[in-house]
């Protein structure tokens, strides 16, 4: 059974190009791809569709390619999909080396619940990190449990895995905690209504006082 942990992929070199050939490849359950980087000549390959579709569910997937009897580590840099049917049309693979530092956008996942009556609005869904090619974190978790209104969490506040370093500006806003605007508006309306009632009561009291004095 193929799983998302089976990163060893057998690739086939392809000599034919064009949309027609690409369609025939996809019909045969394969995905057209190109391998580039490290000063090498781009190599056009075909990948097993089902296995690779599972692997790329994870951001920044690294594939251990076997191509013509040689092993090659590659990072999935770009996945092109049909906008309507979401069929994978093409994949760009970047050659990487073990121990090499690379820059990648890593997803930020917000967990926990902020203080009662507030919401945590995520301003940045990813953060640019420098990490080892073979130790790319699947995601960075940001715990907002109990955070109060007005709290701003920046990139500098993220807990990064060992060996990872921020590339993005440390002051980049990731999450802001605040009372929802509709709640503030509702509170303002209530306060305004209370003020009107108080004014009416004061006016009625004044009129009653004037009647008594007459």
Can you give me a brief rundown of this structure?
With 214 residues, the protein is α+β, with helices and mostly antiparallel strands.
Descriptive report:
With 214 residues, the chain is α+β, with helices and mostly antiparallel strands. The protein is 23% helix and 40% strand. The chain has helices at residues 19-27, 49-55, 181-213, and strands at 8-13, 30-37, 40-48, 62-67, 70-81, 88-95, 101-111, 119-122, 126-132, 140-143, 152-154, 165-166, 173-178. The strands form three sheets. It has a six-stranded mixed β-barrel. A four-stranded mixed β-sheet has the order 10-7-9-12, with no helix packed on it. It has a three-stranded antiparallel β-sheet with strand order 8-13-11, with no helix packed on it. It is elongated, with a radius of gyration of 29 Å. It starts with 7 loop residues before the first strand and ends with a helix.
């Amino acid at each position: 059974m193929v799983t998302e942990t089976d990163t060893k992929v057998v690739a086939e070199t392809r000599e034919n190009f064009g949309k027609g050939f690409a369609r025939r490849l996809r019909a045969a359950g394969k995905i057209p791809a190109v391998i580039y980087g490290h000063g090498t000549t781009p190599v056009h390959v075909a990948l097993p569709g089902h296995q690779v579709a599972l692997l790329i569910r994870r951001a920044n997937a690294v594939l251990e390619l076997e191509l013509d009897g040689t092993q090659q580590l590659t990072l999935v840099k770009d996945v092109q999909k049909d906008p309507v049917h979401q069929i994978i049309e093409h994949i760009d693979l970047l050659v990487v080396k073990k121990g090499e530092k690379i820059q990648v956008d890593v997803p930020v996942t917000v967990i926990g619940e902020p203080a009662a009556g507030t919401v945590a609005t995520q301003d940045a869904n990813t953060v640019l990190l420098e990490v080892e090619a073979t130790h790319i974190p699947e995601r960075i978790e940001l715990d907002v449990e109990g955070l109060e209104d007005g709290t701003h969490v920046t990139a500098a506040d993220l807990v990064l895995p060992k060996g990872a370093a921020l590339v993005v500006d440390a002051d980049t806003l990731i999450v802001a905690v605040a009372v929802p605007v509709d709640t503030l508006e509702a509170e303002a309306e209530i306060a305004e209504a209370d003020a009107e009632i108080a004014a009416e009561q004061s006016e009625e009291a004044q009129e009653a006082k004037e009647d008594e004095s007459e």
